[in-house]
Each structure stands twice: as C-alpha cells, then as structure tokens.
Design goal:
heterotetramer, A: alpha/beta, 6-stranded mixed sheet, B: mainly alpha, Serine Threonine Protein Phosphatase 5, Tetratricopeptide repeat, 9 helices, binds adenosine-5'-diphosphate, binds magnesium ion
Chain lengths: 333, 210, 333, 210
C-alpha cells in the first residue's frame, strides 16, 4: 500500500484539518468530535442540512458544505459511519430554530448512528427529519436485504435539498424535496480495480487483469457479479439499462445525467462513458437537460464509475441551477 | 468464582486484548464480504473502553457495562458501534446495580443484549449477522443456568462455545442484513465478522473468570 | 490494462465528444482537426487565449475553456502535442482582431508545433504572442537540457492570463501577465505509481511497492530519482523545499498554494499534503492567501501529486479572484 | 537501379511497414526514457502518408517527400512530427523536381534533412537524439558518394548502416535534448527512440532499391 498519508489512524483528522486550512472562508472545522460546518452556520431562519458517513468518499460530504448545499458534514473513520456524539453537536450547531434535515445514505451503520443522534437532538428540542438515500439499483431483492444503498444520488439530493433550504422552504418541505430527488434517481456502478483502506493495507478485493465488478457500492465491497472486461460502451449500456428500467424512463423525459468517477479513473474516461450514456438516452427519446461529470462520491482510489440518472421536473431543475458555493461544487456565486 | 466488578473489568480488558489480537483477522473477514473495517473499529472502540475504565473505575458490573456501552457508541461507528452499544446498554440495565451476577442473571443479561441487537438491527437468525452468535449463546446460557447446580463458569463456557459454533455456522449462510447482504449469493462461504467478534467477546468472559 | 475506453486510438476523439455533450452551453467542439472553443468565441475586442498539448492531463486544457480563462484548447493524442493543423484553426477561430496568446508548456514537441502554428497564423495576419510555461524545478541543469517542463503552474497561468484578457488587457499586456505568473510559480511532483498510456498498454515505468519517484513530470516519465516510500509529511517537505528555495520565498511573502493530484490519488490525501505544506510555509513566515486543491493537471490515473507555489501580488490576487466559468474551474458567475 | 519516384514511393511504403512492425519496440524505447508514444506517433503518421500517396500519387521523388513532410507535420505531433516534417521538407526542397536522384544529390538531400532537424531542434551530436543517427548517415553517404564509381545502392547502404550504428551509439549517452533529458543520468543505458526510428527509415530506403 502506497498512500500520501502519515498514520493510517490519523488520515481523517489530518485530511479534515487540511480541508479547513484550504477553505477557511467557507467552513469551520471542529475537531474532537470531528465535524465541518458552514462558516456562517447557523443561518438564521434556514433549515439546517446535515449529512455524513464514512470517510473515503471525498469530496462527499465536506466538499459540499456551503451556501446552497449542506450546513454540516460529519465524517466517520474510513468507510465507517460517524457516531452520534459527532452527529449530535453538528446538528445542534446548524439548527437556527427551523429544524434540521439529516441526509443519510442507507447503510445499517449510517442509519443506526443518525437515528440515535436524531433522537438525542429531538430530546434537546430540535426537530429532525431524515431523508434516506437508496438509489443503488445494483441491490436486488432489496426487501430481503439491508435495502438499496445510497450512492451517486446522494450528491444530487444534497444539492437540490440544499437549494430548497436556501430559498427558505420549511423543514417538511426540504425533506419532501430531498425525498422526491431520491425517488427519481437511480444509480449503478462498476469497479475496474479495488481500493485499499488505509488501516487494512491491502486491496478490498482481488480482481484479475481481465475482470470487472458490476454493481459495486462505494465501500470497496465486491459487486453483484464479476464479468470479463468490456469496452466503455458495453459497460455503459450494462450500467444504464437497469437504471433506466427501474426509473421507467420514457420518451420525452428530461433528465440529469451524472457520471461519477470512483476516484482512480481519469476524467477523460468518464467523458467517454458520458458520451455513450447520452446516445443511449437519446435512443430512448429522453433529453439530457443537465450534466455532472467528475469525481464527486468516490471509493478512495478505486478505478471505475457510476452512472446516475435523475428524472427532472421544472422545480428540480430550478433548484439544481440555484447558486451553490462549496469546495467541490460551485456556480452562480 | 463470582462475577463481580473485578471480573467485569477483566472481561472488558480481555475483550480489548482479543480485539487487538484479532484485529487483522476481523478486517480480513470484513474485507471478504464487507468494507474492511470491523477489526479496526472494534479495536479502536475497546481501546477507548480501557481508557475510560482507567479514568473512572466503575463500582458494579452493570456500571462497567454501561460505560462500555457509551464508549462503544461514541467510538466504534459503523453498524457494529450502535449494535454493540445497545447490547451492552441493555445488559447493563438488566444487571442493575447488583454487585455480583448470578448464573440466571447472566443468562438474562445476555438475552437482553441479544434483544437489543435485534431491536436495533432487525436481523433474524440465519441472516448472517452477530445475532447468529448471540442467539445460540443466549440459549446455551439459559439452559446451563437452568440446571440446578449450575456454577457460573459453566454458564460462561456454554455461552462462549455456543457463540463460537454460531459464528462458524454463519459460513455457508447468504447474508440478508448488513453490508454482506449486497453481495447476495456471493456472501456464502465467508464467516460474518460481527459474529466472529461476538464469539471473541463471549470467550473473553470465560477467560476473566478462569 | 483496464480502462473505460473503446478503442485506444479513439480515446481522445470520444472523450472530447463527450466533453462537448456535457458542456454544450460552454464550449463548441470541432472535430477533424480537433479543438475546443469557447461557445461565444471570438469575443469581440478580447485577446484570444489558446493552449493545448498532449491529452491525458484532463481537465487541462479543455476543462479550462470558458469565460475568464481559455478561448480554445487543442488536444493532441495522449501525451503527444497537437499539430499545427489543429492549432492554427483554433487560433484563427478565437481571434477577434485583438491577437492571440499561445500558452505553451515547455516540451520540445509543444514548442515546435505551436511555433509553426504561430508562424502560419502570423502569415494570415493574426498577431500571436507565446507564453512559455516552465515551472518544474525537478529539472536540474536546465541550461543543458530541453529546459524546465511546464507543469502545475500552467493552470495558474491560464487562469490569471485569462482574467487579464477578460478585463480587456491588450495582447502585450496579457502575455506579460502570463509571463509574470510563470516567473513567480514553481512546482515539484511525486509519483507513487505509474500510469498506462492506452496505446502502450503497460505502465509507463515499474515501481516497487516501497518506492516512489521524485521529480516527475506529467507524462508518466520517470522522475529525477527514486527513493524509498516516505510518509506524506516527509514527501511534502521534499517537494516543497526546492520550490521555495528556487522561488526565494521569504518571510512576509503572500502565496497561492496549489496541491494538484496526478489523477489516481484520493482528494483526502491531497488535503493531508496541503496541511503539511501550509505548516511549512507558515514556518517560513509566508502566508497562504489563496488555495487550489484537486486534480487539475493530471497524468492519466497516476498516483501522486505536485505542489505549486505562486508568489502573489495585489494584481495577481485580483486576477485570480476574477470570475471564471469553465467546466473545471468556476467561481463568481 | 535508379532513385525515381517509384523508388521514393516504395521507400515510404516500406517505412510505413517498418513503423507498424516496430511500433511496440519504439513505444518500449520511449517508455524507458520518454512518454511511451513514439511508436504510436510514427505509425499513425506513416499510415497517413500511405493514404496520401494513394490519394494523389506524386510525380517526382521530391514531390513524394514533400507530401510526406506535410502529412507527418499534421499527423504525428510531439517532437518527432515537426522534426521529421522539417527533415522531409528540406530533403524535398534539396531534390527539387528532378526525376531521378544521383548519389551526390542523395547525400546532399540527407544533409539538408539533418540540417533541418538541427535548425528546429537545436540538438548537437551526442545529445542522444535522432541527430545521432542522421549525422553519421550524412557523413557516410557523402563519403560513399564521393568515391568515383559510387552506385546509388552503396550510398543508401552506407547511410543506413551508419544510422544504425549511430542509433546503437546513443545507448550510453546522457540525453541533453528532448524528453529524455529530464531524466539526467538515468537516461543512459537506453537507446534513443527517434534515432532508432531514423535508422529504420534509412534502412527502408535500401530495401526500396534492392
Ligand atoms: N442489521 C444487523 N443486525 C445485526 N447485526 C448486524 C446488522 N448489520 C450488520 N451487523 C453486524 O455488523 C457487522 C459489521 O460491522 P462493521 O464492519 O463494524 O460495520 P459496517 O458494516 O458498517 O462496516 C456484521 O458482520 C454483522 O455481524
Ligand atoms: N531537440 C531535439 N532535436 C532532435 N531530436 C529530438 C529533439 N527532441 C526530441 N527529439 C527526438 O524525438 C524523439 C521523441 O519523439 P516522440 O516520442 O515522438 O515525441 P515526444 O518526445 O514529444 O513524445 C526523441 O527520441 C529524439 O530522437
Ligand atoms: Mg464500515
Ligand atoms: Mg465493515
Ligand atoms: Mg509525446
Ligand atoms: Mg515520446
């Protein structure tokens, strides 16, 4: 394992510290317990948005703290959800009295820890609503499992719910927008290589030179099945098909197309995937109205990508376009 | 042998030792069907428990377990943090402030712990989770405790052995809860890391009484 | 070699096509010869800015085309500078009559091809000035070599000269600002792994599990020397020292600190490097006034990073802060 | 044997074949001390030359070389594109529109090509570049052509052999120009890819006349 780190156990703390140093006008970093808040939090009258989860998915979530998106991010250890004693103070710190929305990726650990924190926050008089993100169509039979995972769609939920909060929507409304995004987004991912968790020291799975993992999540876990390597168009078709089927994308639909890198894949390759995905969508009569291409929700240095499709309506489009000012996503300001 | 606070502290100390010793093994189990962090999380959590025990030595077994519960909740994270946290909290509540634990009380505390895990995680037996270590342990402990002349060591041993067998029994299971469930059929053929760590902890309880 | 590509020879074309599809409001993509122009080019009265070079460094250069930065980007084959028959039409397309500045990274191929294109453009009546970027302190004895390479500093030259052009500076002034940036920026890079050029199919060099290459460029070439793996702080010190020495950074200096990922290194690790670099600069009495952290000039999926330091003055700071709207860098708009 | 336009076209065709055949080898040489693209670039460029030759068959050797020059300039890129482009352009100019090339004229054309490379690239002998193949080739061709009864094949062979020896001689050199110069001392022990491709091209000139 070769990584630009000092001590595997200090990775999150040092990285978050560096993040705070690099973006001093944007965020405040609290150490022990670790969480990151928007510089001007709590924003008076605004619903607070808190997300978090294991580290290793950067820029998610800290990179999305700022105007028009998250008020706080709570990073756990690498691939380990944060604990209530981090989530609670982050929640309290961004509560202006309008309540707080927790955006939680659907993993047992995240759900349980945010659940406890929400309960504790309610006990302190803060209203909390939880938006559970579970956009990963790779998880089949999800009724008989821990359910679908929250993956690429999380970024879109955070952006759009963030815009709703910023324009002044109340607690229920912000949560409802977040849920609407989640209901209209689906994602599927592929890994060309594994990733190495710093404290583990060896790759999260072993993959032959001519194999890829289809249906991976963002934690270096193996996917649903392993297939021989294919070309980019073939892989794109394979990822997109279940996404479109599950969403029921039909002719005339307008969508946001999000091709996300898992961390170790060159941007140029993501655009090759994007190109094919646009072709496929056009073939179905759907129009790509908005795009996002890049490394936004990653699995350390894993090679691969995920494709997310979000069905847009006028309101979601408007909220997507609304100004955002964070370390990793910025426009209109 | 009585299960008093000294035993409890020794149990937790040996548990911490076991987590440190088996850290890599638990990481490897989690690497196969999860996200490679279980050993790291448990080791970090139990080291923190040791620190807390040293800072504020508890006066009863229940207090020791409560302190453990709070520490694991705030230091472990992931699925295991809240689940073990709840388990230790329920066990602590079940023990109340009694100074010594009788065989029956221990079986009842284990059951409370298991029920806490189920209440939080909603897993059933056979879902390939730590429940598959705890439920046999609870049953074995109850059975041993119910025997007229049960001494406490016998009960501890029965629970540990059942947990170990339960962990081994997760090998062929297809996961339906937790991170391994995403793998579907591919989860079969690997031991559940949480069941494995549960067995280690219940084995440490024997070591503390020996 | 596992890559999200179709045909190694179609990588650049398909990727650029995808780029155009993803950013239709920002750029126009011309195929055969391949180049990318700002949607509204030529901008009346404005000096045009053209850069280009081999592909494989994405988002450089296409990701920097747009308001406040480049007017055109000219991508060559992977790691191969583009040809005059691409550079010339790009130059003509962005010339509004105010002349065109070529921003050229100092590699023999880039220099020669841009030189020819500039000559041909001049022959067609377009005034061209060339800003040569050569910020790489890894190249020693540069008098006896092809000279220092253009690396991380290129991004800063493009942003700041772009802002000068956008505010209406004339040809000489824009070139002068570009040269001033180049004169005040130095960079040094490290590789933890090699990269694989698609048409080559195997890694650009072989590196043991416990070795790193110090002083690498952005073409997967080996560096100046190979050393045993070190921790992030150690590596940061090693990269920063020659940068600061060569720039003569002194107490009281204000700088922009740019930690750039080579493509395959997680963002979290770049922030760990950033953290240390800030500490070192603070130790010298220099203040980090602006920051940039991320994958901006890459070598495919290489793992590693480069550190650039730019000495700022008020004008450079103001130009850095000026609005920019490109696919990869955006603020103020 | 006369060096007419048929020879020239055959030369370029064999050069293209050589680039395709040695593509991987040239990539490997460039991988060691450069950026792994020389073989790919030369192969792409010469395939384009073949297309152009087929599209608009040239009438003189000079015209064939000029067409080659323009095509290499627009298709190869990198350092090699402009350098080879200039070399072929200067050679074409030197040959003018004569229908056949005499031994002396060939030596002069080679010298013009070499001078073009030096004018663009500013490399000196010993800098570990293609110049180290071209300069010995020019000298050998001149010497062979100066011999009273020189036939043109002898001149071609002399140039090819000298270029090959020149390419081999780059092995121990420390590069001072081109991408390999960034490596400093580490560039020693590897053959310069451009010198190697130059030798292949000059060898193809022999093959076309054989
Ligand atoms: N719903 C659940 N009920 C009971 N135990 C569970 C549940 N989900 C996960 N676990 C247990 O947690 C273990 C994983 O813990 P850990 O790796 O620390 O957390 P994470 O899965 O969040 O990375 C599993 O091996 C399993 O025993
Ligand atoms: N200044 C120069 N003068 C002469 N030849 C050079 C010079 N620079 C590079 N070369 C030649 O070009 C070759 C490299 O060509 P190529 O790999 O296609 O281009 P690049 O170096 O741009 O990737 C070198 O092996 C060398 O022979
Ligand atoms: Mg985890
Ligand atoms: Mg785990
Ligand atoms: Mg090249
Ligand atoms: Mg090369």
């Amino acid at each position: 394992m070769k990584k630009l780190i000092n001590d595997p156990r200090a990775v999150v703390d040092e990285s978050v510290e560096g993040f705070g140093l690099a973006h001093p006008h944007l965020v405040t970093v609290s150490a022990d317990p670790t969480y990151i808040t928007r510089k001007d939090a709590p924003v008076s009258g605004k619903v607070g948005l808190v997300s978090g989860g294991g580290s290793g998915h950067e820029p998610l979530h800290a990179g999305f703290v700022g105007q028009g998106m998250l008020d706080a991010a709570v990073p756990g250890a690498v691939f380990t959800s944060p604990t209530p004693d981090q989530i609670l103070p982050a929640t309290l710190a961004v509560n202006s009295g309008a309540g707080v929305v927790h955006i939680v990726k659907n993993y047992t650990g995240d759900v349980l820890n945010f659940e406890t924190a929400a309960e504790l926050a309610e006990a302190e008089g803060v209203s909390v609503r939880t938006v559970l993100v579970n956009d990963d169509v790779a998880v089949e039979d999800s009724l008989y499992t821990a359910g679908r995972r929250g993956v690429g769609g999380t970024v879109l939920v955070e952006k759009i719910a963030g815009a709703a909060a910023e324009r002044g929507d109340d607690l229920e409304a912000v949560a409802a927008v977040g849920e609407r995004v989640n209901a209209n987004v689906r994602t599927m991912g592929v890994a060309l290589s594994a990733c190495t968790v710093p404290h583990a020291g060896s790759p999260s799975f072993d993959l032959a030179e001519d194999e890829i993992e289809i249906g991976i999540g963002i934690h270096g876990e193996p996917g649903r099945h392993r297939i021989p390597m294919e070309n980019a168009d073939g892989i794109t078709d394979r990822l997109l098909e279940p996404v479109l089927a599950d969403l029921g994308i039909a002719s005339g639909d307008k969508v946001l197309l999000f091709v996300n890198g898992m961390g170790g894949t060159p941007l140029s390759e993501l655009y090759i995937v994007y190109r094919r995905a646009v072709q496929v969508l056009a073939g179905r009569g759907a129009t790509v109205e908005r795009s996002l291409v890049g490394n936004y929700i990653t699995a350390l240095e894993m090679q691969g990508c995920s494709i997310s499709v979000l069905r847009l309506d006028d309101e979601l489009t408007e909220l997507w376009d609304a100004p955002v000012h964070t370390a990793a996503l910025r426009w209109g300001v | 042998m009585v299960l008093d606070v000294n035993w409890a502290v020794k149990w937790l100390t040996l548990s911490a030792q076991a987590m440190a010793e088996h850290r890599v093994e638990l990481i490897e189990l989690d690497r196969a069907i999860g996200d490679s962090d279980h050993g790291e999380n448990m080791d970090r959590g139990f080291q923190a428990v040791l620190d807390k025990l040293a800072e504020a030595p508890p006066q009863t077994p229940g207090a020791a377990l409560k302190l453990t519960a709070m520490t694991l909740m705030s230091k472990v994270g992931g699925a295991a943090g809240p689940l073990y946290g709840t388990a230790f909290l329920r066990a602590a509540t079940s023990l109340g402030d009694s100074a010594e634990i009788e065989p029956e009380a221990w079986a009842t505390a284990l059951a409370a712990a298991r029920d806490g895990i189920v209440a939080r995680g909603k897993a059933e037996s056979g879902d390939k989770t730590m429940v598959d270590a705890w439920t046999p342990a609870v049953e074995a402990a109850r059975k041993a405790a119910a025997a007229g002349d049960a001494d406490v060591l016998t009960v501890l041993v029965a629970a540990a052995e059942a947990a170990e067998a339960g962990a081994v029994a997760t090998d062929p299971m297809v996961a339906r809860k937790g991170r391994a469930s995403y793998l579907g059929e591919r989860s079969a053929g690997h031991r559940d890391p949480g069941a494995a760590s549960s067995a280690l902890i219940l084995r440490a309880a024997v070591g503390a009484a020996a």
